[in-house]
Amino acid sequence: MLPALSVGLAVALLAALVLQALLTLAFTVIMRHRLAARPQLASPAPPAEVVLCLRGADPSLPAALAALAGQTYPGPWRLLVVVDSRDDPAWPLAEATLTRLEVDGMARWQAYRLVTLAGRPKGGSLKCASLRQAFGDLDPGTRVVALVDVDAVVAPGWLTALAAGVGQPGVGAVSGNRWYDPEHGSGPGTVRAIWNGGALVLMTLLGIPWGGSLAVRRPLIEKYGWRGDLATSFGEDTSLPAPLARSGLRHAFRPELVVVDPDDSIELTQLLHWISRQLFTVRLHHPAWPLVALHGLASWLLLLPALPLAGLALVRGHAAAAAILAVAVGVYEAGVVGLLLAIEASVRHALRPLGGQPAPSRPGTARALARWLPLAQWLYGLATLRAALTRTVEWRGVHYVVRGRGVALVAPPAKEGCE
User: Fold this and answer.
1) Among 108, 84, 107, 86, residue whose Cα is nearest residue 95
2) pLDDT tens column, 293-347
3) If DSSP codes are grouped into helix, strand and coil, which group holds residue 292?
4) What is the DSSP letter of 377?
5) Does any domain span residue 418?
6) Residue 118 CA to chain centroid, in angstroms?
7) How does pLDDT run across 354-371, given as a tens digit for each residue?
8) Higher-confidence position of 42 and 352
9) Phi–psi pair at 310, nearest 5 degrees
């Protein structure tokens, strides 16, 4: 019984590795195909508006605003910044930065507005409330609406690429994604980068948008009900499938819109919560949640008993079975490291069209990945389980409770840092 169980688990691990290799291959093919067929911006360029929601004075805020100011978009465009309140530390920082960019003549937008969130929502997250307010106050001429996160310091051609992507026939929304490249290579930063590498593959293959670098056609907001959906939503991006389905349009991932994030400051104590929250948004709003949950739990459940079972088999005198299982674990882990390096190579190639310049691969990257991979796999499985079972979630000092397929505020917001 014990030898058969050990060999069976070894076969399952190798089968899981083959499946992940196929997923990575499909991801690589998609990346290369879409880079080779980059959409061109229509002429004249449609009027656009960029929306940035702020809660807390993130260190990246001045750089993010400067990057927006430097957009080379050939058409008219506006910037709308919504801050949680005037008491929020983001307000004076954003106000001073925007004023400086205007005075120095660095801003290429047609106009900008800096406003506060008018009131706390009865349902949905504060970010979704800020977006609902922004969507109700867009310039009448705006045809393309772009969203950006404060930690996304975008390339000069970012808005042009978004508008070109969303202008394709049959496309209603287009987005890039986030690539973590921790500048100091810390353990927690590497763990987050490992998780994000796998998430990038899944999000690409399953059509899950990322709101940090996203654009939509304006009719999606009112005519097809995205603004209404946000009234109860926790995340804005994973709630897009419903209005897209109503419109008959689709979401398209554009690899040239991947944004490099060098942040290395997260701690392990925060990381489980952070990953759980990313998965929680998919669970609430996106139809691909069962596949995401299966991906998160499968490797975890296979690896969790592997080494204890190999040890037990060895103690019981089944050395061959123990060796087969131990080798299978080693091959699986080495294979996953190889797949992560392949994903990284695809991303670095994708960044070139927009002038993205991630740091070159550091010597010892494979060793760092191998060192921190087991912890990343453990946290991913635990975070998936937590996201599947939780009824409450905290985001930037605010607590929410699940209400059907949405959330509601359950605690007064505290003035904390945000994302």
Assistant:
1) 86
2) 999 999 899 999 998 898 888 888 889 999 999 999 999 999 999 999 999 999 9
3) helix
4) H
5) no
6) 27
7) 765 555 555 568 999 999
8) 42
9) -65, -40
Angstrom distance (rounded) from CA 185 to CA 178: 17
The answer as to whether 125 is a domain residue is: yes
Write the single-letter amino acid at 15.
Answer: A
What whole-number distance in Å separates Cα of residue 77 and Cα of residue 13?
A: 51
Q: Which of 418, 370, 380 is nearest to 396 (CA)?
A: 418
Other C-beta atoms within 10 Å of 133: how many? 20
**Ramachandran class of 262: left when φ > 0, alpha when ψ lies in -120 to 50, beta otherwise:** alpha
The encoded tokens of residue 95 equal 């106000």
Residue 66 β-bridge partners? none
Structural domain includes residue 417: no
The rounded Cα 302 to chain-centroid distance in angstroms is 26
Q: Which domain holds residue 77?
A: 1-412
Domain count of the fold of the chain: 1
pLDDT tens digit sequence for 223-232: 999 999 999 9
- pLDDT single digits (tens) 64-120: 999 999 999 999 999 999 999 999 999 999 999 999 999 999 999 999 999 999 988
**CATH number for the domain that contains residue 291:** 3.90.550.10
Question: CA 208 to CA 221: how far, in whole Å?
Answer: 18
The verdict on residue 109 lying in a domain is: yes
Residue whose C-alpha is closest to residue 126's, from 348, 362, 134, 311: 134
CA–CA separation, 379 and 219 (whole Å): 40
Continuous H helices in 215-318: 226-229, 241-247, 268-285, 289-303, 306-315
